[in-house]
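Researcher: Structure for this, please.
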Amino acid sequence: MDSQTDFILTLSCADRPGIVFAVSGFLVEQSCNIIDSQQHRDPQTGQFFMRVSFAAARPKPTVQAISRAFEPIAGRFEMVWRIYDADQRPRTAVLVSKFQHCLNDLLYRIEVGALPVTVPVIVSNHPDAQPRAQAHGIRFVHLPVTAATKAEQEARLMALLEEERIELVVLARYMQVLSPELCARLEGNVINIHHSFLPSFRGAKPYGQAYARGVKLIGATAHYVTADLDEGPIIEQDVARVDHAAAPQDLVRIGRDVESLVLARAVTLHVERRVLLNGIKTVVFR
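Model: Predicted structure, token format:
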């Protein structure tokens, strides 16, 4: 995040003349200085998207005050919008099962200041990650899930997220399917990671299946979670090239590296407010 930035405005609305003029004029009236501005028009839907980072006059106003001042403009253009305090580190819950490579990578990035989030709680359906959470001084909550207890444990999870005032949920290889109800309540605020072999290679051993088919690319996709399993709006993707000499265990190792990198990028893009929902896809400002 730019050290000069105080606030970030994101918006989307039907494209029409005067949007950029109105936004920039508002910021001038508020004695604000634009640090960065990006726009995009979707030619198929006619929707306009914008992200503006800006510095405010001193003393710095509250996000509530500057949001109230912007409401008339937002109403005029029927915007879906929000102004964020750039100094705020979103409270993030990380959900994990047994594989901890993505969790480890996220915690390291947070520790060295490369990922601007606060993680007050790690939740898992297995106890394996508890030592890792304790080593980082993070609360660990074990919620074992079975078919008989799934609804009850999901209710406990939702209560926990509310208790901890969680803004973002990261599924760092959490091997449980969230219910449609929970997906709806957390829409646009749950990020998942999966290998890009889906839906071709389903099941517990996708890399074994990939090896058997002689794949040449190992990939991963980070996306927002929806009720449609692994079909949510895509945030980030990447691949690594492999060849015939790679054994199944090599594919697993390479795949875990790609998964960790892609998930970290997606979380960073989200918390820097660079991702705007555009129906079943996203606009990602770099």
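Researcher: Any notable elements?
Model: DSSP finds eight helices and 13 strands in the chain. The longest helix spans residues 248-271.
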